[in-house]
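Sequence in, structure out.
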Amino acid sequence: MTSFLDRVKDERSLEALTGLARPAFNNLLEEFIPCFKKRVRRSRRNAKKRHQRRAGGGRKSILGSIENQLFFILFYLKDYPTFDVLAFTFGISRSCAAASVHRLLPILERAQKNLQVLPKRPSNDPREIRQLVENNRLVRK
């Protein structure tokens, strides 16, 4: 399968589809790959059924490379299409689109956490929210 990124002709298109410029995408990809591989190893270890195939055997992801899978999940998060639209866009089934989103979201979150780029969620404490807003210079004085 060819890379979805090969079909993206320019930087503007990549940013429009994923919300990231090429350097940011590549930086996230470098952290996403080890998180992805670690998750795959962990899921194999936790499998209740004994595998009959060696590691690497079996059916491959319909989305292809890890780079394609990162592009897929970033596209989903940028546009929030329905699973029907996502399936049509990437040439997969609706159930595969849903399963891929649910499988890739925790991996992306782990990669973002490792890169320390997850947003801080405000609490219900009004003083803390005000402090966050002031720190971001959103309040006019």
